Amino acid sequence: MTLRRKLSFGLYLINVLILFVFAARYLFADRLMPYHAKTIGVARDRVPADQLLVFVTLYRAVGSGMLAVGIAILVLLVLPFRAGEAWSVWAMTAVGLVYAGLSLFLTLAYQAGTPAAVPWQGPAAAVVTIVIAHVLAGKPPVHA
User: Fold this and answer.
1) Is it the case that residue 143 has pLDDT exceeding 80?
2) d(CA 11, CA 43)
């Protein structure tokens, strides 16, 4: 593997690991995220149980999506990417950019409609690093 492909591999892998960390955060959340509490004007520990259930269920759905995207990219990275399959770069980039791009768009839209500090930097960094990883991957070596 060339140095550029190794760097690409590393960037995709960093994105996967970050997805796994945030997936765990959302899958195991049991109270409101601070920015959601600020948006609805309720202290995090004073949310009625029925309303908290709605948020926690949605967090788990988001966490599940993060986990699924992370697993998909990891499988593509470890198997076809390492084997030099050109299509795997396009597949990882497509999956990553659809998720990260939509997350960035939705996070910025949320930020525009609330006074809360919304964590848009993560999705923005994911978009940038996925594009860089894609460019670095270049064309795989031709096997004779």
Assistant:
1) no
2) 37
Which residue has 């597949």 as its token pair?
Answer: 91
142 domain-assigned: no
For residue 55, give the amino acid letter. F
What pLDDT sits at residue 11?
A: 98
- CA 51, 56, 57: angle at the middle one, nearest 5? 100
For position 139, what pLDDT does the model report?
76
Q: How far apart are CA 22 and CA 43, in angstroms?
A: 23
The reply to whether 144 falls in a domain is: no
> Contact 67/23 with Cβ under 8 angstroms?
yes
Structure tokens of 33? Answer: 């995220």
Residue 143 lies in a domain: no
Range of the domain at 77: 3-137
Contact status, residue 103 vs residue 126, Cβ threshold 8 Å: yes
